Amino acid sequence: MATEARHDGYSDDDDDKPIAFRRSDHNGDSEDARSLSSIIFRNTPLNRRPSKIVEDESDDDEVPIASRLQKKNDKQDSTDEKNSSTLENEGAANKVSGKRLLEKGSSADQSSMKKLKVSSSSTSVSMKQDSLKTGKQGDKRKGKQLSVKEDETDDDDDVPIAKRIKSSNSSNSKKPPAKPKVGKQSSTSSATKSKATRVVSPPSKTRSKKSKKVIKDFNYAKSSKSLPSGDGKKKWTTLEHNGVTFPPPYEPHGVKILYKGKPVNLSPEQEEVATLFAVLRETNYYSKPQFRENFWNDWRKLLGQNHVIQKLDDCDFTPIYDWHLEQKKVNSKRIYFFNDMQVKKASRQKEEKYMWAVVDGVKEKVGNFNVEPPGLFRGRGDHPKMGKLKKRIHPCDVTLNLGKDAPIPECPIPGERWKGVMHYDTVTWLAYWTDPINQGFKYVSLSASSTQKGQSDKKKYEKARKLKDHVDHIRASYTTNFTAKDVSKRQIAVAIYLIDKLALRAGNEKGDDEADTVGCCTLKVGNVECVPPNKLKFDFIGKDSIQYVNTVEVKPAVYKTIRQFRAGKSNSDDVFDELDTHKLNAYLKELMPDLTAKVFRTYNASITLDTMLRQETRDGDVKQKAVVYQQANKEVAIICNHQRTVSKSHGAQVERLAGKIKDLKEGLKELTTNLERAKKGKAPLEGADGKKTRNITPEAWEKKIGQQMMKIEKVERDMQTKEDLKTVALGTSKINYMDPRITVAWCKRHEVPIEKIFNKSLLEKFAWAMDVEPDFTF
DNA sequence: TATTAGACTTAGAATCGCCTAA
DNA sequence: TTAGGCGATTCTAAGTCTAATA
After folding, report:
1. Exactly one of A354, A424, A559, A737 is catalytic; which is it?
2. Residue at shortest CA–C1' distance from C9
3. Distance of CA A195 to the CA centre of its chain
4. For chain A, which terminus, N or C, has the lower number of CB atoms within 10 Å?
């Protein structure tokens, strides 16, 4: 069915291209290749995988993204067993078409499509009553409260058997300290000397009702007996850090807003919130009714019912906005003054203390040591909570995670103290507080360049590589089930097909207090249209309220099944009404250990990159090779639907380039005329600026013409690239989906300095991948 | 079995800061 | 000197997924 590929949302532009991939003359073992990578690359044993050569498939266009990429050149490489062994992708390099729309207007209405979630409030209320009564609103979350245990002796009874088995099997299950941690504060801390920080129980999902007891003395530190959550595996043995920093307190500016044209006095607290609103004047939020309503509800609480301000629409925030612009201007200029540079340096030095943690004796960078400042919630899309006031976080909201013997950091705000300290070695976070908007947790963790994150990253890509060995079987399995009698089975089969073929996200259920977005399992009838004879047209709002629009040709059995699932339902009904992500992932685990829906995205992204780089890389300079990489990166970004908004200046930039092309073309015309004149022995014409042009030989004019044409080509290429990438975000796939070892190996094979592809941050993040052999295959 | 807390990854927007051209 | 462009970095929202719990 070779023709199908042309209709399933992928183009077959490459079909008539010459077989592309040729190995560089330098293999990875060459001296050149080694010297190239002398600093970053170190040769380590090849990460070999079982050899597997798959013969051409007859039905490639029905095969999901990755496998549709061709392996034309594998045979060329077959002398290199390691390199050719695992490519299994067929057909032309396919391209997802026609889905680069940021506008959401055409998307099927997803509102009122949400399922009602069954409330557990009745049970959680009683739980709350039994639990800790610290009186802190921030402790509450979804029917659960943080507890601080009073009696720690009878711990294991509270722990489920499965968890206890795990605990006894690993050293990481060592119980948290039985003794209170009082007095573990830094000796320099005056605030914390007087008020001992509590050692509280963690936000553990293993905590049972029995453990939830009221702490009588807030200042009395207690150890936690609750077992940690996370995956239960030990993440560290010793952990030290200096806590987190807080934004400076609000400094009132005294600029008055106008109410019905008259200046109004505001208290510092009221002014602070008014300023948070005023500075957003040039954003889309400012005019959104939902944003304004939520802001007004929260601001009004601060103003009080009897305040002179009774209506938001009668407020004029211009004076504060102007003040804000002025401040911005002043601040941008201040940097040029020596004193301000000094101030900046000093503040950096102050931050330095919080930038690092010591994990098992190794100094690691902390990712986000600054606590989020107060603000107005900026939920994406049509988030029902947008505009709500995000209150200021204080040290008493923040719980730290530290090694048992680590000193408790001094609280950075004099007179205040941490909410608590725990010693929770099966999680990676260093601190957390409760998100005042969504009652979830906000974590402070190590940076992306840390060993911990690196290992986790590597594990992720190894799992995706493993999928390659199972994917044929998985595809055979879901294909068989397209016609299963059992509806659930059929729904699982079709859902996995879509996840595999289109790299859709799993699609968890969402609540009414979240933006109305969908993924595969939550697709509504209105999101999928059947276009005869066998195409599906998708139009829905996905993660981050980014629209996904795509029309693809699918297997007739899939088309028929989707039509059945839609039959007799309204637009707001679920397509997969017998399916959720739990069932889907449970099924995937039967096919491959630890397999979940998201692994398909990583797999498809990485295999697409690997295959495209092998096919498309030609001899040429580094710049040309970098363009090939960018093209492959773009392909992956399109598959994953990674979009960005068009920059405000895009139009002007393109216009400028168009003007440049026009000028260059006029110049070319002049050059051609002068060439003709030179051939006839005539002097060249005057330049456009009226200046006399030097008389040169026809050969010299020809050379100039060649150079001019190259200039034109370059600017035209730049303009095209700019246009092509105006809505495509390349970074997300580079950071999260494409196995960095593919990139590193390709750089080694083709003598492209890795710095041309990875910036400083990525080099640090992917340090674990730098040793890969040049013949690494995903 | 369904629900959801908790921990983590993934995501686009906003901001920063360096460079270049006018 | 300034403005603008643009890649890098920071910020924090919004997903996924596991396992406890009702």
Report:
1. A737
2. A761
3. 40
4. N
